Structure formats: structure tokens, C-alpha cells
Amino acid sequence: MDRDKGINKTDTRAEPSLSSSVSEVYSWYQTNSHGLSFSEAETRVKKYGKNTLERTRKKSIYIRFLKNFSHLMAILLWIGGIVAFIAGMPQLGVAVWMVNLINGLFSFWQEFRAEKAADALMKLLPVKVRVIREGQSMEISAEDLVPGDLMVLSEGDHISADARLVEASQLRVSQSTLTGESHPVKKIADPFFGTDLSKIEYPNYVFAGTSVVSGTGLAIVTTTGMGTEFGNVAHLTQGIEEDKSPLQQEMVHVTRMVTIVAVSVGFLFFLMLISLTQVNLAESFIFALGMIVAFVPEGLLPTVTLALARGSQRMAKRHALIKRLSAVETLGCTSVICTDKTGTLTQNEMTVSRIWLPGSNFHVTGVGYEPKGDITPEQGEFTPEIQTRLKQFLIAGILCSNARLIPPKPDGTGWTILGDPTEAAILVAAEKLGIRYEQENHEFPRAREFPFDSRRKLMSTIHLGTEDQVVYLKGAPKAVLDISTSYYEGSDKRELEPEMRAGIIAVNDSFAEQGLRVLGIAMKTLPYSGSYENPEEVEHDMTFLGLIAMMDPPRPEVAEAVKKCHHARIRIIMITGDYGLTAKSIARRIGIITGDNPRIVTGADLDQMSGEELKNALNDEIIFARVAPEHKLRVVETLRECGHIVAVTGDGVNDAPALKKADIGVAMGISGTDVAKEAADMVLTDDNFASIVNAVEEGRAVYANIKKFTGYIFTSNTPEAVPFILFAFSKARIPLALDVMPILSVDLGTDLVPALALGSEPPEPGIMDKPPRNLKEHVITRSLLLKSYLWLGPIQSIAVMSAFFFQYWTHGYWGQIFDLPAEGPIYHSAVGMALAAVVTTQIGNVLAHRTERSSIFSIGFFSNRMIWIGIASELIIILIIIYVPFFQEIIGTAPFPVENWLFLFAWAPALLLAEELRKGVLRKFEKTRVKIENTGEIA
Ligand code: ATP
């Protein structure tokens, strides 16, 4: 492939190398600072192909297919089949093997579907890159990058192709994916004349697979796809093979345990039969096999995987993309959500509403990014002098910004922005006074930038002026004041005395108390002589210009989500880079803070606190404000030490450690950096706090659903086992109502679709009114076993045995249970009745398992369509088994009189009614408990 040979194959000059100048690089790749034209980019995609890596498959599909036929249970069934052949019952042998085959195919299909669902979710997370084409900065999909594209790099970006830098400002890149070295590497745009460097050590190149840790840059793509350094070394598997989640591990364990118990019980029965009854060896063996098969929950594990996958699909519909299946279950246990403010709790649609310059106060009208509105002084006249100062202030603000305003498009989209909303808001305010970015930028071109960083809380830019260079700076007001020594009063420059500082802080606080986000703006001149490599060399002795305050209204749905969290006993802790008073005002508005005196802990306070102090502080209502991302990590660690299950949000590069450390790292899909998205377990496609809460609700629902179908499957084990028990203890005088084949037809036939349907139940009302589940809690609890085996199971067993006897009693054996014929048409039709009774009672059972606490009538009888499809499927299967001769033969059934269905359907509601009764009592009991708790009475 020629994609790695450079662009210009007819060019006789040498391919650019690390010592080439920027202009040589531009010319070799036939481009310039305006980037490629759209048509050229299209031509190059055709010529060089998409920027994708060829994937090597993880495990052959055949091996994964075969795995479903070689686990412990499958091996047991294979052997069981062989023994059946040897024992002279080829029919049974074939049937057992068929069952094994169907079970394996079913499991494989479930796994396959779960994997497809996960793949589909990943596709919703395309990697985007910012490029310049035809002079416009735009976002494109990383796979559309071509050699010659001008790539814009900023903090947190994932680099998607190899590229030569043409501009770099404070650029540091983590190349750990290529070199294993975790320390970020400094990158430059200048030609480099060193020798003996391997390609990945080139300081003026960036490489695919690496990411920007800090700073900004502009780079020309040199190589894409498999030609990149990453493509050369990547043995990319199709995603990392996922570890089994704790829940899946638990299910493996449960299935194994149950198999061992079932085999032991089966063996015990085998011994009992040959010693207590006259049943011969071969038949005893079949009965024992029946017991084993009856108890082993064959389809449980794949159904759990599928339920998790279905849960993550439902979460995706509610804007939360899950990257690890295990996160689904952890989400359900979340007890604390640490959230940042801007964009997550608020809309991140900034509108400047107030401006303050020493001596003047302005109101700004208009909402959103449309530059429509006015700036008017609060009092007094808008004198030319004041206008000039305001202009100077806004010019400083916009020149020290990277955002762009995008006018409305013909398709109806209004004014939009590219870049940081805080900066865009300043651009909009400036436009309201007729100040255009392009014009100002032309007059004072930018020479250098020290990008915003959430530790310094400052950003500054150096511009070329006529005599001197000009520095514009903006940032958190206190940070700006800390490095300012003077301010303008009219056109006079005055020293910044403590009173003036206090005055500015008071204005800042009054804005912040209204929930406004405030930035300070400052400037200074700088002689041309001198090198300015680091922000510290520039960001001092500034002249303070004023404050700009913007509204960022809370998202409308957040207050409701906060309420939901409080009901669900989930704590919310705001950890923001913004100012304490702003944070407090917003927190109060959306209900995170309800007390009178929340504690506001700043990053500086946190640095002073001991571990114990922090633990104590975390018991109070608390807001962390003006913190750096590193502080987040400490809070998360401490909360985890206190035993909490912590979800934490983040968007920047520095948030990655906290995202990794938390039980659930939540990255912002829109504003988040690629690095944060990579570190997270979940990505929000709408950056919205409410989506985290929805995901928690879905996580709880998934776990509840897994419990529901486990309970459902376990219940029918009882009526499957009872006939064997009666048969053995009556010394074979009570005929066996359900033999191996009928049992298998339930476990691997009629029960399957209804169990799956329970896996897709929507969250039950009230699911968010309970405290979070303990992460160590097991799916199979004592109460689940009691409910299945000692409550619903016995009722179902009575139904099944009564249906079995009913057929005898209505055929001349009235009242008799012993010494009934154990073969012939009556026996087989009685087996048919017993089997049909399992199925009809399972209808009530599946409905009963739809809820844990609520009455099914309160959630809507028909609200889960899948349940009714499941019920229809089991009825169709049972009709086939009873009425189609071929299946009658295999399963050992015979038809019974049609009116007997009335008897069978009379049993259908039994389990549902029993459960409604139990749940009703439970709810009543809980209500009384809550009442006692609320009134303080002692029961
Ligand atoms: P959160 O952490 O909740 O998302 P945040 O976005 O306000 O809140 P930071 O991005 O760390 O947190 O910003 C901290 C402060 O820095 C802001 O309150 C603001 O005063 C200032 N600031 C934010 N963005 C910029 C920017 N682009 N340029 C200069 N200063 C900024």
C-alpha cells in the first residue's frame, strides 16, 4: 500500500523528515494553513482508504461455539446420553443429546446477541477529530482523516493518525500506548536536527493511538490506518476480552453448585430407588438423570448475560453508554454520585448577563448564542470613554478565546458554537457591541497561547502589537486578581490596593450568589525581546480590566433527578472547579443542598485536611468548589474507604485517575475529552446528570430482573422434583407424574421465552424508593429459595399432582393415588395433564414474578409485550407436545379430554394470587413500619 510513502510520489525531493521546515511539510503534502479542500479530501480518501485499523478476531467463532458444548453440564449430558444408549434406551440417549445441542445453540445465540448489542453500543461512540478544511475548523469522524489533513489538537484529544506538527503550544503527549512510558512527552513544531532517534522519539511528530495531555497544536497528517506506527505494532483484538462481571461469576458459581447438588441428589435417589423399590437398574438411572436435569438451571447463565446486555441497550436509549457489562450491576449499587456542575447539572449554554468594570456596571440582554441584545450601563451615561473601556475589555476576552460562533444554517439550526461555551458567551457579548473576532484577530494576530488549565484556572494569549506584544488573560476572578498589580480607572492605570481587591471580590461574590459564573479579564504589554516559554513567565503583573458574569441555567430535568436520588438514598456531592458561592447557589436551586449551612470546601482547604477530617466532613452536606481534578481522586478514594459505591463524573484528562478509581467512572460524551471517555465505564451522550440517575434506575432494574427470572426458573423445579419424591417414597406405588423428557421439555422448551421476557421488564415503580443494594448481596438469597421452594413451588406441585390424579379419577380410579396403572393411555394422558399443569401454572408464575413488591395490576397487566409472547410460546409448545403424535411419542404424553383444560386453566392464576397476597401483606407491613419510623412510635 502506498499510503505510508507520503503524498507526493512524483516529487523528486526527499520526503519531509524531522529536520524539514514547516513550509516544506506543507508543500510536500500539497496543502497550506487553510487545510485541504473538501473535494481533495474526498479524492484522498478514495486513494488512501479510510483511516481504520484492520482488526484481528479475538477468538474463532467455532471455538466459542464449541465452548457451549463442553462445559461441565454439557459433558454430563453427553455421558448421560451414552449411558442411556448402553442401557438399551436409544430414544432417551438421542433425546438427551438433542437437549444438549439445543441448550448449546441457545446459549451461543444469547452470547452472540449480547456481543452484537455491545458492538452496536460501541458504534455509538465514534472517535471525532477536529480538522481545518477550506479554512474552516470542523469535526469529522476519525476514519475520514487523510494524509495532508490539518489536525487541530487540544488537551484530552485522542490522536487518530501519525502527523507532523506545524504549531505547538505547551504540547505534551502521552505515548504510553506505543512506548509503555507513562510520562508525557513534550512536542514541538520546529525542525529538529538530532540524530539516532527512532521514529516514535521524533519530537515534532505525533502518533496515532497516543493522546494530548496538555497544550494545543496543529499537525499535518502524514500517515493513516495500518501505515501508522500504531498500525505496525497493534495486534488489535476485537475489543479487549471482557472479564466476567461479579454477577456473571456468581452465576457460574451458582450453576456449578446447583449442578453438584443436583448430581448428588440424583445419585442419592438412584441408591434409594435400587434399594427401596423394585425398579430396575436402568430405570433407576433414568430417574436419577431426571432429578439432575430437573434441578440444573441450564439456561440461567446466558440469560443473565443477555439481561445485562439488554439493560445496557435500554440505558443507551436513555443516553448512558455502558462500556463494561459489569458496570450495569455496579450502577444499581451506587450510593454516592460525585458530579461536576458545569454542563452536567447545568445546561452549559452560557449567556453573559452582567459586566463590571471598575466604576461601571452593565446589564447584557439576550439569551443563547444569537448575538441579539444590548449592553447598557446600570446607571449613568454610556460615555465614549466608558464605551472604549468596555470595548477594550471585550476585545481582550475574545482574543483570549478559541471558540467560534457559527451562524444559522439553511436547515433551520440556529446560532451554534464550536469550542468552549464560556468563551463563546464572551464572543456573543462582544458581537452585541459590534466587535467581530475576525477583525480584531487580524489586527492583533495571536503569537502564542497558554491554554486554559483547570489547575491554574487561567488562560492567556500573546498578540503581536505595533510596538510591544500584548498579553490578554482571563480566568477565575481570584486567580486573575492574584497575578494582577494594577487596574484601569478611566484611562488611568492605578495600583491595585487591598481595598480595591476587596471591592472586586465583593462584586464577584454578589454575582456568584446569584448563581452566575464569573471570569476576570486582564491584560498587559510585553516587550518583543525575551522568550516566553512558560505561563509563569508571562502571567504576572497584570492590569485588571473587569469581571464578566454569565448565566448557565440548571438543566430542567435535574431537580427531579436529584429528588429521585434522595428517595433512593443516593448522596450527591458536587465537585466543581467553579467558585463556591456560584456552586452553592446552583446546588440549592436544584435541591442538592437543603440545609442552611452547607460546608464549602475548596481545593486549598482540602490540601490542609487530614484523612480523618475529610471522612468526618463527608458526613455533612458538603460542596467541593475551586478544586482541581486531582482533588476529585482524593474525595473518591475516601468515599470508597468509607464503604460507598461511588459514581464520579469527569471530562478532562486530569479526571482520568478519578474515573478509573471510582466504581463507576462517568465521562461526558459531548464535552468530554477522548482520554476521559477511555478511562470511564459509562459515557453520557447528553452530558446530563439526569441520565446518570436513569442509568442507576436501569441498573437496579437489571438486577431485579435477574432475580425475577431466577426465581421463576427455580419455582418450577419443585413440581419437577415432587413426582420423583412421591414415586420413591411410595416405593413406586404412586406412578411417576413427570419423567425426564417432560421435565426437559419445560426447562428447555416452555420456560425459555417467559424467562427471557422477565429479563426485559422495565424498572418497577418504587425501585428508586429503596436504599442501594449491597454489592456483596447475592442473587440467590434465602428468601428467594424460600419463596421458590417452600411457597410457590409447593402450590405448583399440588396443582401438578392434582392434574395428574384428576385424569385417573375421571377415568374410573376415583380417590385412588396408589397402585394406579403406570403405563398405557391413561398414564400417558395423566402425564400430559401434569405437564400441562406445569405450563398453565407457570403463566401465573411468570406474571407473579414481574414485580417484587408492587401489585401487577398497578404496573399494567399488558405493559411488557414480551411476557405475552412468552406465554403464547409456552402454550403453543405444550399443545404440540400433547397433540402431535411424533412429540407424544418422544415426550411420553397422550391427549386428554378437551374439557380438562378448564381444570388446568383454573390453576393458572394460583401462583399469581398467592404472590399478590404475599406482596400485599408485605406492602402493608412496610407502610406500618414507615409510619412508625416517621412518627417515632415504637412498635
Ligand atoms: P465543573 O468542574 O463543575 O465542570 P467548571 O467548568 O467551572 O466546573 P473549571 O473548568 O475548572 O470548572 O473552571 C474553573 C473556573 O475557571 C471557572 O469558574 C471560570 O472562572 C474559569 N474558567 C473556565 N473556563 C475558562 C476558560 N476557557 N478560560 C479562562 N477561564 C476559565
Automatic annotation (TrEMBL):
Residue ranges crossing the lipid bilayer per the database entry: 65-86, 92-109, 257-279, 285-309, 789-806, 826-847, 867-886, 898-914
Record's subcellular location: Cell membrane
Family matches, as SUPFAM superfamilies: Calcium ATPase, transduction domain A, Calcium ATPase, transmembrane domain M, HAD-like, Metal cation-transporting ATPase, ATP-binding domain N
Domain (Cation-transporting P-type ATPase N-terminal) ranges: 14-89
Mode of membrane association: Multi-pass membrane protein
GO biological process: proton transmembrane transport
Gene Ontology, cellular component aspect: plasma membrane
Any one Gene Ontology molecular-function term assigned to this protein's record: ATP hydrolysis activity
Keywords: ATP-binding, Cell membrane, Membrane, Nucleotide-binding, Translocase, Transmembrane, Transmembrane helix
InterPro entries in UniProt: ATPase_P-typ_cation-transptr_C, ATPase_P-typ_cation-transptr_N, ATPase_P-typ_cyto_dom_N, ATPase_P-typ_P_site, ATPase_P-typ_TM_dom_sf, ATPase_P-typ_transduc_dom_A_sf, ATPase_P-type_domA, Cation_transp_ATPase_P-type
NCBIfam families: ATPase_P-type (TIGR01494)
Name recorded for this polypeptide: ATPase
Protein's organism: Methanospirillum stamsii
